Amino acid sequence: MSETMLLQANALDKSYGPIRVLRDVSLTIGAGESHVVIGPNGAGKTTLFKVLTGELYADRGAVRFQGRDVTRMPAHRRVHLGFGRTFQVAKVFPRFSVQDNLRVALEARVRRGNPLGGVSAAQAKAFGEATESLLADTGFEAQRDAIAGTLAYGDRKRLEMAMVLALEPAVLFLDEPTAGMSAAERQATVRLLKTVKGKRRLSMLMTEHDMEVVFGLADRISVLHHGQLIASGTPDDIRRDARVKEVYLGDGEDHA
Questions:
Q1: Position 251 pLDDT exceeds 70
Q2: Taking the model in full, what pTM does it have?
């Protein structure tokens, strides 16, 4: 893994009224790294995601992306810089076909800064080629004409991920990417993320509860508990960490 830090969060604090949800949280995402954030329900994982992606602003602390301070930058501007995010509930256009969902995402990327501009013949050809590439990379070639709203839950999540990939992000934020999936769908998602990460040289930050998924994807794991970062390290480091076992993993479990 490259030592170049793509994203740095320093001493983040966030409160909702009197409730302090993040407490002095610092973490980094290295170029090409898969970094997974885990912790019990209510640990602050989703709030951390919202602060990092610009949906919320931290009360204190700083977020830097590729050396640039983005702490007070809104979410849509972070997307323009190279942030991509999926959600716990997949966000797709349910009445559009799979390939039309991808085309909408591709056009959104090209139209950045010029939302009313036309599409040239060269751009239209490029959209077609990029759509075919995404269909192949995400396993949707046989379902290109399927209506998104009729897809199985795991396929809708996969389509949302393909739409985010159409934006060509430098870092992909995945909030519970396998939530609600069957075991087979989770395994397929892990394979897909590994393939996409390698082929597109993505960095990824994700939250996830399924430990098989976590240890199958993570280069590094950070553990939140009551809004505090209690451990961060390699999967082997986390497996051996006594406090992590106490508050989250438990003792005597076989974590693949």
A1: no
A2: 0.84
